[in-house]
Specification:
The complex is a heterodimer of chains A (about 1000) and B (about 450). With about 1000 residues, chain A is mainly beta. Chain A has a 22-stranded antiparallel beta barrel. A 5-stranded mixed sheet of chain A has the order 10-15-16-13-14, with no helix packed on it. Chain A starts with a helix and ends with a strand. With about 450 residues, chain B is mainly alpha-helical. Chain B has helices at about 1-20, 40-55, 55-60, 65-70, 85-90, 95-120, 130-155, 180-195, 210-220, 225-235, 275-280, 295-305, 340-355, 360-370, 385-395, 405-410, 415-420, 430-435; strands at about 30, 75, 260-265, 290-295, 315, 325, 335-340. In chain B, the strands form 3 sheets. A two-stranded antiparallel sheet of chain B has the order 2-4. Chain B has a two-stranded antiparallel ribbon with strand order 3-7. In chain B, strands 5-6 form a two-stranded antiparallel ribbon. In chain B, strand 5 and strand 6 form a beta hairpin. In chain B, helix 13 runs antiparallel to helix 14 and helix 14 (about 360-370) packs parallel to helix 15. The longest helix of chain B is centred in the first third of the chain and has 26 residues, at about 130-155. Classes of the chains: A mainly beta (about 1000), B mainly alpha (about 450). At the A-B interface, helix 1, strand 25, strand 26, strand 30 and strand 31 of A face helix 1, strand 1, helix 2, helix 5 and helix 6 of B.
């Protein structure tokens, strides 16, 4: 306890430095003019500041300014203006004229990095910055889903068309088999949780906690990719870091009100094509007779075929069958509305941002809905010259109508709508609605679905900055991420899950992270050539997750829905916690702004690892050479900038493993006869330690032709060792595995970004940005292969990429017999498991995006494509739907199955129907593995900003109206609905499409007003 | 400023010093495996943990049971999980998920039993009397015997593990023993259990009489007819405790449990101990998936008064006029799993007697079972007729219980009854994941 108190003591103190306030004494006055260096035109609204003070002003319509100051001449004046390079001038007399050079925007852009910010020209690491205003109109629930194709080397797949569900995001590949591969999300310095708290089964799907953030509150997003950039986040940096900076006010800014409103609709562009009732029946008969021929003992003949006349005891002739449409009942044109209102401003010592937002999105399948209401307050206060304190607060309520849009029979929407055979009537002989094929009745499901969740989320940060000595700054901050996730289900007795007398569940999960951080930074210039900085800091973090669950069964009737009215009830609770302590430091040095070097080291101790191995050390070193600054390049006119960067370092990973993964445990949950029982739960491993990823990066940044063409090229090589793995044990030991560091994985690739200004002429501007990346993933070491996914479709084994498809390779259909010819790998004359082989993987060969921005006077147009090339996807709907009748009344048959082989000489790749897993219709056949390459018109925005003269009349600063389209166009060979679909949110089961609603085409109209 | 520096350095030191305790986080839902079975309470809870493994969905909950009946000729597959059809087709692949689940669950049970056998003996707690120690260890031996028996009859010889796994390196790389060696381990464990257990009656936990019942079945499988008859007789003679109940459904219908029919059944309370078996059988209107169902042939036999009699209560019709199995039906899911019951002992004794040409008494045992089901007595006159009548009786009596496949395999009649001519198919393949996890394991021939 004493230790604990001391620990807290550290974080509560910070020096209160009282500075005596002097009465203003005027020692100098200054008038001046700011002009464009080339055109000599005055610049209106440029900011002028006396360095080292808060004293400054802005230029008037003549480009002039006037200052009174207590400083004595000479002093340094800092002048900055958007679109121009800032300039520092030593002022010796009281009138000055300062000429600013137009800026090549790229170089002076401020980029947020770990524990600080830098101008882009001084960057050593590989960091991408995204302005979310481009993407926030894309119809998706979370900001990260909106970033697809925007950042080179970052692969983002929206696995479903349900807004606010988890997406798959990978920064430079995947490094871990059983630990997380998601990047670390940091919001205003708070490491936030991105693991879903959902416990209700929705068929392998999970909600995204990132959807709790309102995209409109975000000022900028930085994606940190290489070791130099991420090493300061050492323990968490191996999968990249996404830094989110939320909006804040500015000092001495007059209050600005912004209001955005938009409304839109969305729908699926394509649905599955199903067989009609007669077609289905015909295929079933064909299968029946075929199997009878293959195995006479089954006694299956034409005479006793299932679809024979009712008078003969059959289900009626195939041509007598009806066709019932269910997909049309499930899918809808959904609506979306979004409202944001914010106020930002500041005085000399205070700045503030207050924002509120409301977003309401329906999914394209009933009854799913996503709703987010958010409220944000950011405040910063200068206490005196030396001290500033501030807070960030965001509070969100996210409400979801949920439903099982994934796999699983009970409550499965697409099982009921898609996988139910079309010939089966939704009513039985008595006219009562009934479920078919083991699935729920769709109408009953839609009328009675009652599953919802409410997430209350607070993300906040309180900081204090103090300048202890000149150039020596101290910062202490507290961050909290609190999430209360409340779920409930009620299944009445008309639904499978609620049979026979109703089932209700309620679950409250609470997740709390607290984070405390101290940093001390010192930055100094010595002479004109040498500049260096030192940063040291520490972090303490604690994550606690608790859950309380209750369920009730047996309700008097469907009017009673609360657990308190149930006949039998049950409950449970759970508790889990992890702590992390870290120390870090960084030294950087630059010589003549030409040679940049930095070195950083982070030490992290995690409670999750074995007693001997809790601490991990993560160093990195980075170098950059600004070649353009060399004398021999300075005068090369066509080359505007050239920089070469390189870094190497080690980062760690511990996310996703159990909080107690290293401990040998017995559980108390093995009860028998209603009395407690204990049993072995997991084997311990006191040597369990950090997963380590070593990353080398070399990059080149260049711009030419008056900075109209700029590009960035990166090559990286990541090697993960001590990979966290549930190493399989023979089950004869009584355990299926234990946590170890047995895996090694590599990711290598390049990233290329090209930005061009195609036209900049008068009012017409056109810019293009292209990014292309490649990642080559390989499992370098894995003691024994691991199988994942339905029918073991995915195999992880040494020497092949992660998430490779493990299938029976089909060479075609024999035109004579109609049977599939399989690749008999071991040539033993029979097809067994030993003949399964790896065919392709989920990894694209290339992926990226292309953005175009055009503007003319008040008009702006933005269109953006994202693409992937060379990845595979397993169309599991076809696996079920092309069984050729073998699943009889248990599954729908897709219309594509009509092309099956029927008689000798037929050339087709769909074989003759036979039994399940006999020959032609084998679990894991390769004919359902498809090319998942695509090119998507992800967004198209057309906006018009009204002329100032018009907007001023109605009292507004600016007013823009726009039309935005999402997913307007998709080019793909994939025969399913959406090549990004994945039935599961499990990281090891990507790329299997089963019963997943596609991402819809959406259109919306909106207005942005600022006052 | 000096003060500030001083505070800063002291604070940093404080953090360093206190990190050890900050990083020491212990779970609340589990305990360390260093201290597990140390006194009476922990011994008592540990033996319940062994039963809990036996009750698991992978073992007697659902999966292992389904291997026994799906592989027979009574069940039709109506769902979407194709591993089910592989049993019905009698072409089970090594990547079948049911056999994988069953293998894992059975060995988990063995490891728990090994823990009890090894650790309970060393406990010194005056509360834990020698009688209690013997009982717990005896129960663990019994369950281990049952587990190896099930492994042997399904897969043949398997790795024999008799020590608990404490470290990841324990019990790895152990090759398969022969089927005979595996059965020998079963007998050894049964012989060890018998004297340790009290001769009481407990239908949910093993007693000496439960051992007798399993020995009867064991000897039947070994074709040791004298012993099979002897042990079946020991249980049947205890008629106050074990007898055939009328009507047939008396042992399961109307939420019955622990009836005199039952020698050993697994208890589920329906909340913390759930038997998911019903989900596979019941139709959607009862909250199930009806993944499999009685086939037309079985429905006909059960509904034939001369064959099924009151055993027709095993099946029922849903609101779409489809038949479903109704042995597992309770909601919440608290159906017992029936492992050994009186009818089996009668039929074991009937078969053992028939094999010894004691036709009259053998026929009497058979007819006891038929009579209970309300079916006319069999008139089997010869040994062959009687054996065939017993075989057919077992098909109906245990229509939804895991016997049919194992019965036909042990009597060598798979070719005649199921048309399975490939002898390799009589043993199931070792799950492929096990072969990948342990190089010491070898696959059964033909897979």
């Amino acid at each position: 306890m004493k230790k604990k108190l001391l620990l807290w003591g550290l974080v509560i103190w910070f020096p209160i430095l009282s500075q005596s306030q002097n009465n203003p004494v005027i020692n100098a006055t200054l008038t001046g003019k700011i002009i464009d260096a080339k055109t000599r035109e005055p610049l209106i609204g440029a900011a002028v500041l006396i360095k080292g003070t808060t004293n400054g002003g802005t230029t008037d319509v003549e480009g002039q300014f006037f200052l009174k100051t207590g400083q004595k001449l000479p002093f340094i004046l800092v002048v900055s203006f958007i679109g121009y390079e800032p300039k520092e001038t030593i002022v010796e007399s009281n009138t000055v004229e300062i000429a600013l050079n137009p800026d090549s925007k790229q170089l002076s852009e401020v980029v947020v990095v770990g524990y600080g910010s830098l101008e882009r020209k001084n960057l050593i690491g590989s960091i991408a910055k995204i302005d979310p205003s481009d993407t926030k109109t894309i119809q998706a629930g979370s900001f990260d889903a909106q970033l697809q194709g925007k950042v080179s080397g970052v692969q983002i797949s929206s696995n479903t068309g349900v807004p606010g569900e988890a997406i798959n995001i990978r920064v430079r590949g995947a490094t871990s088999i059983n630990a997380d591969n998601d990047p670390l999300y940091v919001v205003d310095g708070v490491f936030i949780n991105n693991n879903s708290l959902q416990t209700i089964g929705t068929g392998g799907k999970a909600t995204s906690p990132i959807a709790d953030l309102n995209p409109n509150d975000i000022e900028s997003i930085e994606v940190l990719k290489d070791a130099e950039a991420t090493a300061l986040y050492g323990s968490r940096g191996a999968n990249g870091v996404i830094l989110i900076t939320t909006k804040r006010g500015s000092f001495e800014q007059k209050p600005k009100v912004s209001f955005n409103a938009s409304y839109g609709q969305a729908k699926a562009t394509k649905l599955w094509e199903l067989t009609t009732g007669p077609e289905h029946a015909q295929l079933v008969n064909e299968w029946w007779i075929n199997t009878g021929k293959d195995t006479p003992s089954l006694n299956r003949t034409f005479v006793n075929r299932p679809f024979r006349p009712v008078s003969e005891g059959g289900r009626g002739l195939s041509e007598e069958q009806q066709t019932y449409d269910r997909l049309g009942e499930l899918f809808r044109t959904s609506s979306l509305s979004n409202y944001d209102l914010s106020l930002a401003g500041g005085t000399k010592t205070t700045k503030y941002y207050i924002g509120g937002g409301f977003n309401n999105q329906e999914a394209i399948i009933k009854p799913i809905k996503f709703q987010r209401a958010s409220f944000k307050v950011n405040l910063d206060q200068k206490v005196n010259d030396k001290i500033q304190v501030g807070v960030s607060n965001s509070f969100t309520r996210t409400y979801r109508n949920q439903a099982r849009a994934g796999d699983g029979p009970a409550g499965g929407l697409l099982q009921a709508a898609l996988h139910t055979p079309t010939y089966l009537s939704p009513v039985n002989e008595q006219g009562v609605l009934v479920g078919r094929a083991g699935f729920d009745n769709l109408t009953l499901l839609l009328d009675n679905y009652n599953v919802n969740s409410t997430s209350l989320r607070y993300i906040g940060n309180l900081y204090a900055d103090a300048e202890l000595l000149p150039n020596l700054k101290f910062r202490s901050s507290w961050g909290i991420d609190y999430n209360n996730y409340n779920e409930s289900e009620y299944w009445n007795n008309l639904l499978i899950s609620g049979s026979p007398n109703g089932l209700a569940t309620s679950s409250i999960t609470q997740f709390t992270t607290w984070l405390n951080e101290q940093t001390l930074t010192y930055r100094k210039k010595i002479g004109t050539q040498h500049s260096f900085g030192v940063l040291i800091g520490n972090t303490l973090q604690s994550d606690l997750q608790t859950r309380t669950y209750a369920e009730g069964r047996g309700f008097a009737n469907n009017q009673f829905t609360q657990i308190s009215s149930a006949a039998t009830t049950a409950g449970s609770q759970s508790w889990t916690k992890s702590n992390l302590a870290s120390f870090f430091g960084k030294v950087d040095y630059s010589f003549a702004s030409k040679y940049l070097i930095d070195f950083s080291l982070r030490a992290d101790g995690s409670s999750r690892f074995g007693n001997n191995r809790q601490w991990g050390y993560f160093p990195s070193v980075g170098l950059a050479w600004r070649a353009k600054q060399e004398s021999f390049l300075r005068d090369v006119q066509w080359l505007n900038d050239l920089k070469i960067r390189s870094s190497v370092g080690i980062t760690g990973n511990q996310n996703g493993i159990g909080n107690f993964a290293s401990q040998g445990l017995w559980t108390g949950g093995a009860s028998y006869q209603g009395s407690a029982g204990i049993a072995p739960q997991q084997l311990g491993n006191s040597d369990l330690q950090w997963e380590r990823t070593r990353q080398f990066n070399v990059g080149l940044d260049a711009s030419i032709l008056n900075s109209r063409v700029s590009f960035e090229l990166n090559y990286y090589n990541k090697y993960t060792s001590n990979g966290l793995l549930q190493l399989a044990l023979p089950a004869a030991t009584g355990f299926s595995g234990y946590w170890s560091n047995a895996a090694e994985i590599s990711n290598k690739g390049f990233e290329f970004v090209l930005n061009t200004v195609n036209v900049r002429k008068g009012y017409f501007n056109w810019t293009t940005s292209l990014n292309i990346a490649q990642n080559v993933n390989n499992i370098e070491k894995l003691p024994n292969p691991l199988r994942y996914g339905s029918r073991d479709l995915i195999l992880l084994q040494e020497g092949t990429p992660m998430y490779s498809f493990w299938v029976y390779k089909e060479l075609g259909v024999n035109p004579e017999t109609g049977n599939v010819i399989y690749d008999d790998v071991n040539k033993d004359g029979q097809i067994t498991v030993a003949d399964r082989q790896i065919v392709g993987s989920i990894w694209p060969k290339l992926f990226g995006g292309l953005t175009n921005n055009l503007s003319y006077k008040g008009f702006d147009v933005n269109f953006f494509f994202s693409f992937q090339y060379g990845n595979e996807i397993y169309n599991h709907n076809r696996f079920f739907g092309e069984g050729g009748g073998a699943r009889d009344a248990a599954r729908v048959i897709l219309a594509s199955n009509n092309d099956r082989w029927q008689k000798p000489g037929d050339i087709t790749d769909t074989p003759r129907p036979d039994g399940v897993n006999v020959n032609n219709y084998r679990d894991g056949g390769s004919r359902w593995l498809e090319d998942g390459s695509f090119l998507r018109l992800r967004s198209l925005n057309i906006g018009y900003t009204l002329p100032k003269a018009v907007t001023r009349k109605i009292g507004a600063e600016s007013l823009r109206v726009y039309v935005a389209g999402t997913n307007l166009f998709l080019l793909t060979k994939y025969t399913g609905l959406d090549p990004e679909s994945s039935a599961s949110s499990d990281q090891n089961q990507q790329g299997i499409d089963l019963g997943t609603p596609p991402q819809p085409l959406g259109v919306q109209v909106g207005v942005n007003i600022s006052l | 400023m000096k003060v500030t520096k001083y505070i800063l350095s002291v604070s940093l030191i404080t953090v360093l010093v206190s990190c050890d305790s900050f990083l020491d986080v212990k779970p609340k839902e589990s305990i360390s495996d260093v201290v597990t079975i140390v006194d009476r309470t922990s011994a008592e809870t540990a033996i319940r943990g062994v039963y809990s493994a036996l009750a698991d969905g992978g073992y007697y909950g659902t999966s292992f049971q389904s291997i026994g009946y799906l592989s027979g000729d009574n069940i039709v597959w109506t769902g979407s999980q194709s591993q089910v059809q592989e049993f019905i087709n009698k072409r089970v692949n090594a990547d079948n998920s049911t056999i994988s689940g069953a293998w894992i669950a059975i060995y988990r049970t063995i490891n728990r039993a090994n823990n009890v056998i090894e650790k309970v003996a060393t406990v010194t707690d005056p509360q834990l009397t020698q009688a209690l120690k013997n009982q717990y260890i005896g129960e663990a031996y019994f369950i281990r015997a049952l587990a190896y028996f099930d492994l042997a009859r399904t897969w043949g010889g398997v790795p024999l593990i008799t020590k608990p796994t404490v470290n990841p390196t324990d019990n790895v790389g152990i090759a398969r023993s022969s089927q005979a060696e595996t059965y020998a381990q079963v007998l050894k464990d049964l012989e060890a259990a018998e004297p340790l257990l009290p001769a009481t009656t407990d239908r949910y936990r093993a007693t000496r009489k439960t051992v007798w019942a399993l020995r009867a079945r064991y000897h039947l499988y070994q074709k040791e007819w004298v012993k099979a008859e002897e042990y079946a007789d020991k249980v049947i003679t205890d008629a106050t405790n074990y007898r055939l109940l009328k009507p047939f459904s008396a042992f399961f219908a109307n939420d019955a449990r622990g009836t005199a029919e039952s020698v050993f059944e697994i208890f589920y309370n329906g909340t913390t101990e759930v038997n998911g078996h019903r989900g596979q059988w019941q139709p959607q209107t009862n909250g199930g998936t009806r993944q499999w169902a009685p086939n037309d042939a079985l429905v006909t036999l059960l509904n034939n008064p001369a064959v099924g009699g009151t055993r027709s209560s095993l099946v029922a019709k849903d609101n779409q006029n489809r038949w479903y199995g109704n042995l597992y039906y309770r909601n919440p899911a608290s159906d017992p799993s029936y492992i050994l019951r009186a009818a089996e002992l009668y039929l074991i004794r009937a078969e053992a007697r028939a094999q010894q040409d004691k036709l009259t008494v053998g026929l009497a045992d058979l007819n006891a079972v038929r009579d209970r089901a309300g079916v006319v007595a069999s008139a089997a006159a010869t040994k062959d007729e009687l054996l065939l009548a017993i075989e057919n009786e077992r098909r109906i009596e245990f229509a939804l219980e895991p016997h049919r496949w194992f019965d036909i395999v042990r009597t060598g009649r798979a070719a005649a009854v199921f048309g399975v001519t490939d002898a390799n198919r009589l043993l199931l393949p070792i799950p492929v994941q096990q072969l990948l996890s342990d190089k010491a394991l070898t696959q059964n021939p033909g897979y």
